[in-house]
Amino acid sequence: MAFLASTPPGFISPPSTSNKKSLTSQVLLNGKRGQRFKISCNAPNGETRSNPSPSNSQSVETSSAIKLDRRNVLLGLGGAYGAANLIGDKLALADSTNKPFPYPNLTDCTVSYITGDPNTPNSVQVPYTCCPPTPADSPQPFKIPHTDQKRIRPAAHLVDDKYIEKYMRAIQAMKDLPQDDPRNFYQQANIHCAYCNYGHRVSDPEKGTDYLLQVHSNWFFLPFHRWYLYFFEKIAGELIDDPTFALPYWNWDTPCGMTMPFMFSTEKSPLDPSKSNPLYNPKRHPDHFPPAVFDLNYRGAASGLPDLTTVCNNLSFVYRQMVTNAYDTQSFLGTPYYFGDAAPRGTGASELLHNPAHIWMGKPRTTDPPTYGEDMGNFYSAGKDCLFYVHHANVDRLWRVWLEQGGQNFQNQAWLDSQLFFWDEKKNPVYVTVKDCLDEEKLGYTYQPTELPWLKAKPIPKLEKEDVAANSNAPSVANAFPATLDKVVKVLVQRPKKSRSKAQKKKKKEVLVFEDIEYPMDEFVKFDVFINDEDEVGELMSKAEFAGTFSSVPHGHGGDEDRVLLSGFKIGLGDILEDLQADDDEYILVTIIPKNAGEKVTIDNVRIEFS
Ligand code: C2O
User: Fold this and answer.
1) Which terminus of the chain has fewer CB atoms gathered within 10 Å of its CB, N or C?
2) 111 vs 271, 360, 561, CA distance in Å?
3) How far does residue 14's CA lie from ligand 1's centre (Å)?
4) Ligand 1 atom at minimum distance from 358 CA
5) Beta bridge partners of 484
6) How much distance in Å is there from the Cα of 208 to the middle of ligand 1?
7) What's the confidence (pLDDT) of residue 7?
8) pLDDT under 50: residue ranges of the chain
């Protein structure tokens, strides 16, 4: 296939093994309400990008052909843009040529998939529609209401009975709304499904092309979830007539918060055992109710480690994701994703920090009857568990913490101007922009302050220098890659530069880059990475050798032919090499330890870059 050869280095390349159809093939998607979407794959390459028209055209045909550029969907090409970044050089593109996302076509929202896509034989559709009610009038730009009443989000493990009563009442009220009320609890849950399992698409009126929309594994992860929680919280407050109502946050980055907060864990109301508990959800992992310790870096099975080790691992994992692997804007927030790109897969450290937790909460998958990790362990159903919103409130809070520690948000106009659609607490259809969510003060909420113990949990260095790389007989990259993670993979990676000065290190970070990771989108995959470690077990994250972890949360496709998602992944070597007294070494030994579904993961290449 000719287009394979033109795949830019470091960018998404199609799987080499799968049974792919030609680029010009057409994919038929069954739309909701019976329409069929025709996805054709022959749009021109090298299109020019212009500024988006300010108006948000919602006038798209829903009954006939909707052209989806298969190449764009799969490769995110579009001339140089796809090449510009997943892994490679910093985005140095003029923003004026990169388009923000308009909010999705509401009349075009279609079926979501739990696994696979329309062309895979065993694909499974979400058995109901995840699409929001279609508004009669066009959504209006959302104006953040001015308020003097701050909403203070409390730590979930610290709330009192008064708060629990209010919170239960609000959730119950959302569940009691008519099913077609967009503020209904399950309608709210479906927002996540439609944005995450490819129900939503956006159209480019200039080209007459539609694109699937995805808010994970790219720079929309944090802003999308912030807005999502904002409206959820406002709706909850509206229904109990309390504008100060604020969602709790699951403070899992401190030992006191490292169990499922008690109020979610009992079938009966924690305040009145004669009543049911609206915060409870039976679709959770049965072994992970209190007093089970939350395993933030869960591998899909019990680790067997002592609880205290899990606590230490958690803290060091948070440190790595909040500090070491959050060395710049993109590394923390995720890869840029412009309107017209395929979802470029560069999951930020913030998202990778939050992924395994989803799996820890969801019910383990079964084949007979088939279940898919519901509720929390699959994107389509995650919003049906109240835990979702407390988990994400903590992710949102950690975004703020990261900024306070010196992190910086993107300045790209295309990010700032991108839009999302929601229903507000008064049942108005509105659209919001990324830039309007960057200041929580303006949104009217803040977080109850707590300690940040993980800041003191930096993984501990070795006592002595061991010449691990020099003494290793692991193969070189050329001999070991591409690699399938069906076993522990060890490889010696050459460092283009060593013994850099302090000033040089400050200017450019040394980063370990895993290029072209392929894995099934509808499965939980996970692997951990250790540097200069002779151990093949990889259980301890509180030692300096632990560098980072890659994971995914399962979800279906929406128009690709391949049941494969392709991605890149970076690890900030930061001061790990100094801690390991390996800064003057020419090679490092990289150990990749598969923790779940490794046999389904392949990585093309690994190398070091300075960014
Ligand atoms: Cu939209 Cu925790 O995921």
Assistant:
1) N
2) 40, 27, 16
3) 25
4) 2
5) 602
6) 30
7) 26
8) 1-94, 561-563
Return the DSSP state at 519: E
**According to DSSP H, which parts of 132-184 are helical?**
161-176
- Which helix (H) or strand (E) segment is 506 a member of? helix 502-507
Q: What is the pLDDT of residue 96?
A: 52
Tokens read off for 158: 């610290």
Protein residue whose Cα sits closest to atom 3 of ligand 1: 379
The CB of 226 under 6 Å from ligand 1? The reply is no
Contact 254, 247 (CB under 8 A): no
Atom of ligand 1 nearest to the CA of 196: 1
- CA–centroid distance, 379 to ligand 1, in Å, is 7
CA–CA gap between residue 397 and residue 390 (Å, rounded) = 10
Closest listed residue to residue 570, CA positions, set 511, 527, 516, 519: 511
| Ligand 1 centroid from CA 145, angstroms | 26
Residue 322 Cβ inside 6 Å of ligand 1? The answer reads no
- Which neighbouring-strand residues pair with 39? 27
Strand partners, 519: 565
Closest by Cα among 27, 189, 12 to 123 = 27
**pLDDT for 20:** 28
The answer to whether 317 is a known catalytic residue is: no
Assess contact for 348 and 334: CB atoms under 8 A: yes
- For 286, half-sphere exposure in the C-beta direction (CA atoms, 13 angstrom radius) is 2
Cα separation values, 250 from 254, 364, 518, Å: 10, 22, 32
Q: Where are the alpha helices (DSSP H) in 320-445?
A: 329-333, 349-361, 379-382, 386-404, 413-416, 440-443
